[in-house]
Specification:
mainly alpha, 2 helices
Length: 105
């Protein structure tokens, strides 16, 4: 599961970096800077790379997400049960504490 988290975080961080890159390319084009090499449009390359990243991450994560979904649901139920048990324990302690009131004179 940590691999899923890592891939997701890396994807999100990388996708966030595309916007400043796109803005920089637009600014350079606006100020008539010629930075194209071998008839390559960097704006198209930037969008293509973003799409490719999304496709690769979905190929990597898609089957894994489906296979661990039952495990995640089971763990969610376990967490809910532990939470209920903890709440009961706290309420019991509170009730005992309120009846004994160790600091009340």
């Amino acid at each position: 599961m940590t691999h899923l988290r890592d891939v997701k975080q890396i994807k999100e961080n990388t996708v966030e970096q595309f916007a400043p890159m796109r803005d920089t390319i637009q600014m350079l084009k606006k100020h008539a800077e010629n930075f194209e090499m071998e008839n390559v449009d960097f704006m198209v390359k930037c969008e293509t790379a973003k799409t490719f990243l999304n496709e690769v991450s979905e190929k990597a994560l898609g089957p894994v997400k489906e296979s661990i979904l039952p495990l995640q649901k089971e763990e969610g139920k376990n967490v809910q049960e532990r939470r209920k048990f903890f709440v009961q324990k706290v309420l019991k302690f509170r009730g005992e504490f309120m009846t004994e009131l160790p600091y009340h004179t």
